[in-house]
Design goal:
Elements: E1 2-5, H1 10-21, E2 29-32, E3 55-57, E4 63-64, H2 67-75, H3 88-116, H4 125-144, H5 155-170, H6 181-190, H7 194-197
Parallel strand pairs: 1-2
Antiparallel strand pairs: 1-3, 3-4
Helix pairs in contact: 1-2, 1-5, 3-4, 3-5
Amino acid sequence: MKLIYAAASPYARKVRVMASEVGLLDSIELVATAVLPTTENDLVNPLNPLAKIPVLLTASGEALYDSRVICEYLDSLHGRSPLFPAEADKRWPTLQLAALAEGLMDAALLARYERAARPAELQWPAWLDGQLGKITRTLDALEADAARLSGPVDIAQIGVACALGYLDFRFADLNWRNGRDGLRAFQDAFAARESMRQSEPV
């Protein structure tokens, strides 16, 4: 298998952490690339019409995207305990928490683009404030529900950890840990895992 990714992408990091946690990382060739919303990428665009990473090329040559699909595919390939719970009473809360983490990544990436990719004279402060508001509300919701981030590793924990890691990487000025002791404790512990240490963004 081949994973087309960027080291700074929280979505690609989620896939790499997932692969590591289920023992599949060594069977995946990592192919680094850079994807920007304003430029063509000759490697990614023919595989994903949305022009987004990550993209996983399976052993049969099929291109899978996005990170949610790739992670669930990887979860189907190993014999360990599944990271996507099958039982309804666990599955839906886990997927909802994973979706919240995905939305946190989305808002952070849009805010990053507004700050770093858009020319200063074209930046829209109200747009940036809207994305930062989503980030703050999501962090508060995760803090209020931090107890759900305990127990065996699952896709929700991976997603939250990668989203928070992206905030550390790109938005250190937000000081998201302030007043969020539960979330801070979760992240400090999860970030020490080998899967997280070997996938730190650059």
